[in-house]
Design a protein that fits this description.
It contains 8 helices and 7 strands. By secondary structure, it is an alpha/beta fold. The chain has a 7-stranded mixed β-sheet. 28% of the residues are buried.
């Protein structure tokens, strides 16, 4: 009996977009389980993970209770950054291509507070277009409406487009344009990260 090969897929994770949604859900994704979830139907050839990392400035701009001249607070910044980088190393060991971007802080005069800015939409879009010859299915973890044009473009190029996002942060336009969509909310049993 002839075995039909699975379509080749690349997974693109916009963690900056998902981050706040996980606060609503109260759980986080196990990225080993995520890969296994999609390998049922696809030959997953690559996984990209786009994430922000605090600069010294953005960290202290948004942690008003900390003093950037205090040695203990500087040590806290270093520990937090080291812990985050350990997560990146763990993802790399699992086969993820981690794309790190510095988080910027911009002062908003109307609100009198710093706001964080870290958008990897351009980087993700470039990688997705650059790799089109290598995959049949584009799998996106993000609910950001900014990706509507990218999904439309990839569909026109004959790619299957699959989008997975947290329901409360899932653009209706993005949901409509994709070939297939999933709400992460209902997949806790299959995808939840459980600390050992």
């Amino acid at each position: 009996m002839e075995v039909i090969p699975k379509p080749k897929a690349i997974i693109f994770i916009d963690y900056s977009n998902l981050h706040y949604g996980f606060g609503i859900l109260g759980w986080d994704i196990d990225y080993t389980k995520l890969r296994q979830y999609f390998t049922r139907d696809y030959d997953v050839i690559d996984l990209y993970y786009y994430v922000g990392e605090h600069s010294f400035k953005s960290y202290f701009d948004t942690h008003k209770d900390l003093d950037r001249k205090n040695a203990l607070h500087i040590l806290q910044f270093s520990k937090d950054r080291k812990a985050k980088r350990e997560v990146f190393k763990s993802l790399k060991r699992k086969g993820y291509k981690v794309r790190v971007k510095q988080i910027a802080s911009v002062y908003d005069k109307t609100e009198g507070a710093y706001k964080l800015k870290c958008n990897s939409d351009v980087e993700l879009t470039i990688d997705a277009i650059d790799r089109t010859a290598h995959y049949d299915a584009f799998i996106l973890l993000s609910g950001d409406a900014d990706f509507v044009k990218l999904v439309q473009y990839l569909k026109e190029k004959g790619k299957k487009t699959v989008v997975m996002a947290i329901r409360e942060h899932f653009s209706s336009n993005l949901r409509t344009v994709a070939n297939q969509t999933f709400n992460i909310n209902g997949l806790r049993g299959e995808l939840e990260y459980i600390k050992r």
